[in-house]
Amino acid sequence: xxxxxxxxxxxxxxxxxxxxxxxxxxxxxxxxxxxxxxxxxxxxxxxxxxxxxxxxxxxxxxxxxxxxxxxxxxxxxxxxxxxxxxxxxxxxxxxxxxxxxxxxxxxxxxxxxxxxxxxxxxxxxxxxxxxxxxxxxxxxxxxxxxxxxxxxxxxxxxxxxxxxxxxxxxxxxxxxxxxxxxxxxxxxxxxxxxxxxxxxxxxxxxxxxxxxxxxxxxxxxxxxxxxxxxxx
Amino acid sequence: xxxxxxxxxxxxxxxxxxxxxxxxxxxxxxxxxxxxxxxxxxxxxxxxxxxxxxxxxxxxxxxxxxxxxxxxxxxxxxxxxxxxxxxxxxxxxxxxxxxxxxxxxxxxxxxxxxxxxxxxxxxxxxxxxxxxxxxxxxxxxxxxxxxxxxxxxxxxxxxxxxxxxxxxxxxxxxxxxxxxxxxxxxxxxxxxxxxxxxxxxxxxxxxxxxxxxxxxxxxxxxxxxxxxxxxxxxxxxxxxxxxxxxxxxxxxxxxxxxxxxxxxxxxxxxxxxxxxxxxxxxxxxxxxxxxxxxx
Lengths: 232, 295
Hints:
The structure holds 2 protein chains of 2 kinds. Chain A is of the alpha/beta class. Chain A has 7 helices and 11 strands.
């Protein structure tokens, strides 16, 4: 599939390097993503895919290089400002949804809003409005332990989208799901993000996941491929 | 974020309930054991203070009273006898009695008064110079069942003179002593029990700290998973710290309240345990000297 690529990049990582002790994980990796675009980051295990994603999202600070979100240098922000970015303009979907077992599904979805200072009641009301569109109608009061893997991941996607982020980061979002459920979840993720004009960065091993994105960037030994490939 | 921590405190399935329940139980046990031991130590401390006046300290100013005493027995039960003779017209009031006994007057603890009434006169009552004038209040006793008599004497009475060595056991009798006020220094027996209880508090506190640490570690896994998710979602450091403190304070508070409630329920049973020959005293509540009650 091919999608139109908007001209204005919303997020750009430039020449990123990151080491953990003596282990050099990233060596000058670069990646750009535009509004409404979806990019799959592929590569073998240990190649630095997840570290690249966490550098781009401000979870990890790169040793060198820069992360630009519009006019903002993410890598130069304080810990508090990066946390603010994560709860206001970034959304996260993990391999395991990371739902809090103490909260019901709608409360889990409402979590980013609660962290941003919205009252519990208002946050949950807004969260419930998302459930029908994500095929979760009727599951609002279920606890995470009462949801299937696919349902839990849909709740995780709803949580990533509740605050209408500019960029959604997904780390192996279908890695814990069977093929059919993974296809459903990925379709939902890509279409919902595109409908909302958000950007999507997906780290994955799975070619079936990657082919649903607009572009594929490969990471090998901490370096991104110089010629990003389009999915046709 | 208002209200979020309350939602997070709810149980999240069986494993989460176990992780929450164990620290609660640990908190309750810690509170219960510490309250019992501290209460015991405090009770023994008050007991020592209540009976301190019976151990005379020699006068450093003009004496006002001669104080003597000895331990008598009925069967194998000791009777503490305090003998007092006024050296002035207005001697100080005896603690817990409200006045100074007149020569020949006998005050007895409730248990001793009851025993004197129950036994034939030649077995017990004949040992005292007169019938019981009034009962001592519990505020002057080691325990409610303690047998104590306070006898008023004249300074010239033979018992207020030097005690003959063949008659009195030095360890259980008090040589007549001129005093100018009531002692506030407890005797060695009382302070030994009190200090042993304090040592028990200290020695028990160390493993209880370990128990608290174990309980905290049981909660740590659940808390770390949750906090990692919250941090990724953009929770600020202050939000994470507030959530952690709220959680710890809540569980510690609930555990402590449960332990305190259990402690209150167990106090009547614990106070029946005999310590230094006496039991039944409300060790956890303060006793203040009161006025004597008539027999």
